């Protein structure tokens, strides 16, 4: 006969309804407290895509140089840049707010066969999408209605064959026409996003010879920051602290360019990295 065994109750498993409600309430409270921090740290998709675009363009720029004995792609400025012999430029076309088809013609960016004096990086990137920041909403009245413009990027006037310094007699900040002439690639930007009310040709002008002089204006599409790619291949966002560097946008109107902004440290940063030097002034 088996001995009688006492019944031992099992330990209680799980939560009561009250405990479950308390846990859920605590989780919701923590989520509410963390939401602002997570929102600030979450990568912005437009800025991420913008930097990726500039990295691709910088890579194409370096590939072109590698295929041409280190010679950098043409970077002339002016209304016919990229459209005629003697005016060769890395991109062709002049952006404005008129019905000119230059505003919407992607072939000016990538079709080197059609535009043999421009679109030099087209064979390397193959898509026009990399020439436009997704946060740039500028349009032009082409074809009877507002159409998105095709380009938001420009190239540093201190790099490229055929480019020029803003100061005719600049000695301290010369043009680099061959990659070997760039002494500090990590300090010299190559391509940047330019403001929609500043951009026209594909050459971004700066004037390091004149302290605090801003010629063309960089974009600030990403929470008051602008995108840059550098000669060493990296890209970055740079935040503008002085409101004079990011004047109020008047859609459809150009800014007044080539202005002196005394004390604007943003302009000092721009001049330093256009010239590609370790310190400035």
Keywords:
single chain; alpha+beta; two-stranded antiparallel ribbon; 5 helices; 11% strand
Elements, N to C (H/E)? HHHHEEEEEEEEEH
- Strand residues, percent: 5-15%
Spatial strand sequence of the major β-sheet: 5-3-4-7-8
Main β-sheet, in a few words? Answer: 5 strands, mixed
Overall 3D geometry?
A: globular
Oligomer: single chain
**How many separate domains?**
1
Helical stretch tally: 5
Structural class: alpha+beta
Give the N-to-C terminal Cα separation: 102 Å
**Integer-rounded radius of gyration:** 27 Å
Mean pLDDT across the residues is: 90
* Number of DSSP E strands: 9
Structure description:
The protein has 281 residues and is α+β, with helices and mostly antiparallel strands. It has one domain. The chain is 24% helix and 11% strand. It has helices spanning 17-41, 45-67, 107-110, 122-125, 265-275; strands spanning 139-140, 147-148, 153-156, 189-193, 203-204, 213-214, 225-230, 235-239, 259-260. The chain has a five-stranded mixed sheet with strand order 5-3-4-7-8. The protein has a two-stranded antiparallel ribbon with strand order 1-2. Strand 1 (139-140) and strand 2 (147-148) form a beta hairpin. Mean pLDDT is 90; it is low at 35-43.
Would you summarize the structure shown here?
The protein has helices at residues 17-41, 45-67, 107-110, 122-125, 265-275, and strands at 139-140, 147-148, 153-156, 189-193, 203-204, 213-214, 225-230, 235-239, 259-260. The chain is an alpha+beta fold and 281 residues long.
């Amino acid at each position: 006969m088996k001995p009688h065994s006492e019944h031992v109750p099992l330990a209680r498993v799980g939560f009561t309804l009250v405990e479950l409600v308390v846990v859920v309430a605590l989780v919701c409270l923590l989520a509410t407290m963390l939401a602002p921090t997570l929102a600030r740290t979450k990568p912005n998709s437009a800025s991420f895509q913008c930097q990726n675009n500039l990295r691709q363009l910088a890579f194409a720029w370096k590939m072109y140089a590698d295929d041409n004995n280190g010679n950098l792609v043409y970077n002339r400025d002016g209304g016919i840049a990229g459209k005629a012999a003697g005016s060769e430029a890395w991109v062709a076309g002049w952006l404005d707010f008129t019905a000119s088809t230059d505003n919407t013609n992607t072939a000016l960016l990538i079709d080197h066969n059609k535009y043999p004096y421009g679109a030099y990086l087209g064979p390397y990137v193959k898509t026009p999408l990399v020439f436009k920041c997704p946060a740039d909403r500028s349009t032009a009245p082409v074809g009877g209605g507002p159409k998105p413009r095709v380009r938001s990027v420009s190239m540093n006037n201190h790099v490229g064959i055929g480019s020029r310094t803003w100061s005719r007699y600049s000695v301290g900040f010369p043009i680099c026409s061959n990659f070997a002439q760039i002494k500090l690639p990590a300090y010299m930007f190559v391509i940047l996003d330019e403001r929609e009310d500043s951009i026209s040709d594909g050459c971004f002008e700066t004037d390091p010879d004149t302290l605090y002089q801003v010629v063309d204006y960089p974009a600030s599409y990403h929470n008051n920051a602008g995108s840059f790619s550098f000669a060493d291949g990296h890209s970055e966002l740079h935040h503008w602290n002085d409101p004079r560097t990011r004047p109020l946008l008047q859609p459809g109107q150009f800014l007044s360019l080539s202005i002196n902004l005394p004390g604007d440290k943003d302009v000092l940063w721009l001049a330093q990295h256009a010239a590609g030097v370790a310190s400035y002034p």
